[in-house]
Amino acid sequence: MNPEVQNIHQNEGHILVVSCPLQGHAAPLIKISHQLTKFGIKVTFLTTNLTHLRTAPATARWEDCRNKGIRVVAVPDGLEHEEDNKDPKKLHDSMNKVMPVYLEDLLKKTNQGNGNTDRISGVIIDSPMGWMTEIPKKLGLKVAIFWCSNPGCLALGLKIPQLIEAKLIEKDGTPLKYDQKINLLHNMPAMAINEFTWYFPRDENTQKEIFHVVKGIIHNMKNADWILCNWIQEFDPTACNLLPNLLPIGPLLAKGRCAGSFFPEDSTCLEWLDKQPENSTVYVAFGSTSKFTQQQVDELANGLEMMNRPFLWVAWSGLTHEAYPFYNDKYLKRVGNRGKIVEWAPQEAVLGHPSIACFVTHCGWSSFMESPNEEGIVSRNEIKETVEEVLSNLIIKENVLNLKEIARNTINEGGSSFANLEYLVKQMR
């Protein structure tokens, strides 16, 4: 029986979800919260004041969360100036100081008294904040850490001790052998040193900081009872053997509910997509943290123009370090109604729209970087040719449709992700 129907009158268990104040972390954790409520679980979503202020006006649907059994608790981030929130290191350091105090206080106050029916029975913590698992653990609570990245990144993090022992990297993550590739997972292409998550050759200090963050996240996972992953078990069964307590629960979807967007979503793009032919439109979006040079954005804009296909481009103002906008009136006139450019889009609805044929995004950017020019810029011709290759390859299309069907089945009742989430709920009640 569908849990949304089965548990309408049932409310057993209370799970606290702790989110890192970043778009790519808050959104999936809000989606997990929605999934938990379908099983009759009450959820408290703990985040920062900044995240709450950003998401509340953007989605205007926090009330929907509350109506579905999700209580939102916002705490100070400890920063004096709002501009400091744009500095990842300052934000990370501040959260490390203030969040533990609020977390422990919330757990103790909520769970005081033996007859309290609102007691928190389990905690889900975002992986960058995994060092806080000791707080709920010492109070006798079950804890799951949410890993928001892919299996390859987790496999790489787990392999850090072997990489150091084999003298492929220094103890601070600095690469030593650029000509050697390593195998992380079965059926995954071997990875070169310059493809490592923390590789940042233009800034060695940043590279070392990212490495130590990754190393710390992996280290803290050993304290969790379970590791929740936004994966699909059927896509890569061997990845589930990386750790004995992995629970793949993806794909995480909002399905029209509040999804934690930090920015106002321009829904006019959906009306524009309605007017485009089926499987015709290229969707371009690079998330909320990727940064590009003006030259690369110019190449992207010209590449989209050269495709002579409909395109929807999320060209938000933080995409470059330079002044906004990235395009001029002449460009808009040339592309005409064939192109739609917005500041931010309701991405899940866009990706589910029948007119979308291809998604160009930062998660696939490494594949573009296999053939950049000497200045590290992906040319307009390369962008055009790569997209055309994807859209014209019938094998790719067939594989994508098969993967889509598997992904849909895995989150339905009887699917592996559904079963894993159901198992977690039973353990945390």
What does this structure look like?
The protein is α/β, with parallel strands linked by helices. The chain folds into 2 domains: about 5-260 and about 410-429, Glycogen Phosphorylase B (Rossmann fold); about 270-390, Glycogen Phosphorylase B (Rossmann fold). About 40% of the residues lie in helices and about 15% in strands. The protein has 17 helices and 13 strands. A 7-stranded parallel beta sheet has the order 3-2-1-4-5-8-9. A 4-stranded parallel beta sheet has the order 12-11-10-13, sandwiched between helices. Strands 6-7 form a two-stranded antiparallel sheet. The radius of gyration is 22 Å and the shape is globular. It starts with a helix and ends with a helix. About 35% of the residues are buried. GO terms for molecular function: quercetin 3-O-glucosyltransferase activity; quercetin 7-O-glucosyltransferase activity. This is UDP-glycosyltransferase 83A1-like. It comes from Dorcoceras hygrometricum. Keywords: Transferase. Belongs to the UDP-glycosyltransferase family.
**CATH H level of the largest domain: which superfamily?**
Glycogen Phosphorylase B
Describe the sheet with the most strands. Answer: 7 strands, parallel
Q: Report the span from N to C terminus.
A: 20 Å
**What is the number of E strands?**
13
Number of self-contained structural domains: 2
Helix share, percent: 40-55%
CATH architecture of the largest domain: 3-Layer(aba) Sandwich
- Unreliable spans are 1-9, 56-60, 364-371
The geometry reads as globular
Secondary-structure element string:
HEHEHHEHEHEHHEEHEEHEHEHEHEHHHH
Could you say which structural class the secondary elements and strand pairing correspond to?
alpha/beta
Strand content: 5-15%
Q: How many whole angstroms does the radius of gyration measure?
A: 22 Å
CATH class of the largest domain: Alpha Beta
Organism: Dorcoceras hygrometricum
GO molecular function, one term: quercetin 3-O-glucosyltransferase activity
Family: Belongs to the UDP-glycosyltransferase family.
Pfam families: UDPGT
